[in-house]
Amino acid sequence: MKIGEYCNRDVIIINGDESVKFAAELMRTHHVGDVVLVEEHEGDRIPIGIVTDRDLVLEVMALGLNANELIVRDIVTRSVLVVYEEDSLFDCLELMRNKGVRRLPVVNEDNSLIGIISMDDITALLAGMLYNVVRTVDHQQKNEIKQRP
């Protein structure tokens, strides 16, 4: 199961010179917990950082800073971790667990941003798969009861 098949392709991106307040507004408007900072290189959007809702709380609100006066570059998590669209779901989960992150930008072989995957996305995917397993087992049991009363 490749991450590229399951990632959210509708990534909210931001410029590093935008205000932190604007980043928060984007998150609210689009109902997401992150925005990805990208740089354009020959038509490719290369992720260079990520700002999460947690960053807003820890780096701005908890310190009593003014979100209007800060720019995204002031609080962005640099050296952002990424996964490649060809990486497996399980490799992605392992990276998230090892690094303690809940969201990862997804890139292609040119390191261009193509999506984002979150722990919530993976949890929903796995829950759906487990539900299908339970339905299959239940169906098999019912068929067996009909065939061998």
UniProtKB/TrEMBL annotation:
Family annotation (PROSITE patterns): CBS (PS51371)
Domain of life: Bacteria
Keywords: CBS domain, Repeat
Residue ranges constituting the CBS domain according to the UniProt record: 7-70, 76-137
UniProt xrefs under InterPro entries: CBS_dom, CBS_dom_sf, CBS_domain-containing
PANTHER family xrefs: CBS DOMAIN-CONTAINING PROTEIN CBSX2, CHLOROPLASTIC, CBS DOMAIN-CONTAINING PROTEIN DDB_G0289609
Name under which the protein is recorded: CBS domain-containing protein
Organism: Legionella maioricensis
